[in-house]
Amino acid sequence: MKKSYKLLLFLCFTLMFFIGLEKFYDFFLKENMNIKSSYISKNKINAKIIILGSCGPFATISPKEIEKYTHLKTYNLAEDHVNILENYLSYSLYLENNKSPEYLIIYTSPETFDERDNVLHSFHFSQFLDNPIICKTLKEENPNYYRWTFIPFMKYAYYNSKFNFNVIQGIKHYIKKKPTTLQLTGYSPIISPGTIEGKNKIHRITYKFEKKYKWSKIQEKYLLKIIKLAQSQNTKIIFYESPHYVKSNFNFIKRAEMQKKTKKIAANFGIDYLIFDTMKLSLDKNNFLYATAMYEEPSIQFTKVLSTYIKK
Amino acid sequence: MPFNSISYILFFSLVVTIYYLLNQNYRKHFLLLSSLFFVGYKNIESIYLLLATILFTYYLAKKIGSTIDIKKRKYLLRLGVFISISTLFLFKYIDIPASFGFDSNNLIFTLGISFYTLQNISFLLEVHSNRLKTEYNLIDFSVYSTFFPKFIMGPITIPQDFLPQINSDKPLSSNLTIGIQRILLGLVKKIAIADSLAEYVKFNFEKNHTPVGFTALLISYLFTIQLYFDFSGYSDIALGSAKALGFDLKENFNFPLRSKSITEFWRKWHISLTSWLTKYVFYTVSYRFRKLKKAAIPIALLVTFLLSGIWHGVGICFFIYAISHSLYMIIEYFTKSSRLEISTKIPTKIHTLLSIFITFNLVSLSFVFFRATSINNAFHLIKNVFSFKNFLPTNWKIDVFEHIAITSDQFALFNLFLLIITLSLFLLFEKKIYSIIINPKTNYIFIFILILILMIMGTYSNPEQFIYNRF
Questions:
Q1: How big is the CA angle at B409 (ends B407 and B413), to the nearest 5 degrees?
Q2: Which one of A233, B22, B36, B228 is most buried, counting C-beta atoms within 10 A?
């Protein structure tokens, strides 16, 4: 009897501990201002222009450059290694704490809709599982992860290598009460040309190994959700595709077909779709880290052109 | 049903609960049913194949036991061994299930074949040599052959150790505590340490990012440690599961990374396989070649390790792995007296540390062949280790830590350090940890720490298979 009492006490303590630990992680991850989702839900940004997309715009579009020409407060909500689905979640989270923007600029290159990018990085949103949109989306799109989240702390244990350091950083930010500059504009340029040298660079520039695209229905579904959400709040949407190294086109199988589908969606919703392939920048491989991502200097040149269009 | 899965935890909990509620007389029947479920839950064909093997071995053993004619007994033994080895070859090396459209990775019969083939052979050998005194029937033999904690990856048990335990009426409650503590420790070793190491080792071995000099050496160390935590973690779960059911299986590891020589290493690493090979191969071969006097032992060592290499798999890498260890052992055999002489001239502590260091390095180098994706991959890494020109890194952060951690991200480096600290603590206090585990008194603090490590450091989103699953 005494033993079973001890065991019961132990189980209760363990359960309570992990419930507490989960709350601890929730709190300090939301305090970590290096995490974009935490930053936007903690700080009032209220930008007039929001840039949405993956690594392309994250590393290319400088909000300060756009502000120079448009005089409208701009925030880059794009992130490295994310897809349209995650953009939808970030944008929903942004709207919870901020006013809806006047313009939503969405990066919609064919690469964005490739099926290979369907991976949902649920760990970007684990601390926001109390948000109904995030909860519903993760339940639908990543049930393998979602079913674990009912066990205390398991929502973090499942991807734990992604959280432990961020929690410690969150504690630091909480104590110092000083957000770092990392997410102030949301932009992170690729500064050093020649980061990747030799053979690797040529492979990445020309995609010597063919890249055959396949249209992703999931990304399409969430693009439509973003469009409906934005248009319901009278936000004007612009689709754009930044310059890419055109000589690599021969290895991008079915790229044109992908563009056609995006154009059709844009037309259906009365959205402008801007493609900047004809820019001179697209001809010089020295402007690119890889075929679809430019270095800082050419990015600024491109941002000027994009800003001029928005200003018009 | 891998040991590091929720399905196994649920299955095991259910089995233990029913087992404890059952009358002693029905427990072995229930164990057999549970084991057959374990083998056949994915595909019923595994059960048919297993039952055929059991019936064949059992009746052949009975026949050997009841035959007086020595020649006939020998003939029956040879037939049994031949059929067992042929089955192993057909299923493991030729992959006969694939020709019938089966995926061998899902056929539990194939997954465990290397282990229970050896068990069945030892059963026949023990019966043939009249060493098996325990009375047994078909149910007992079937439990011995299919017992789920040891079915897929051992430990390989000899019948004398296992059969008497089937019908013994031992108190179970203290076993349950030890069993559960040991399972938890095994899960920590596998899920929190080995699987985390796997990511670094995989990247550095397989993605053409082969490091140079000290970093390459460190990667080979990390694989040795990964393999140890992976396999000993598995063994802990197997032994813990068996213990909770009242069975004591043979220990598979005895702190092998602290070995002072390769000979000692093989007494402490994968003990059940080493014991099997020593008993049935090494002794037999050395006895056969006894007339060659000093050469008998080296020949026996060579044959034993070659067989061990083939048992792990066919291929040049396993061949080199086997040859390297037999060479290590042969050299140790011939230098025994001179080494002893040296040891008297050096302070004991220094000698011990030096011996452990040399042994660990030799083992790690041979394990490169065990892990490599190809012979070129193995030689490339070894060549890089011995590039003495650039052996020590110019920038430790970039050349060593960032290389191993795969990226220069702060969180990746933090995870690497957390892992290194945890595994170092485990290696340093291993003996203490085991002394807590085998204590039948429930240590709640220790259990809590293990659960905490599992939750903070475990790998769940992308679990790795046990390395020895492929053997």
A1: 80
A2: B228
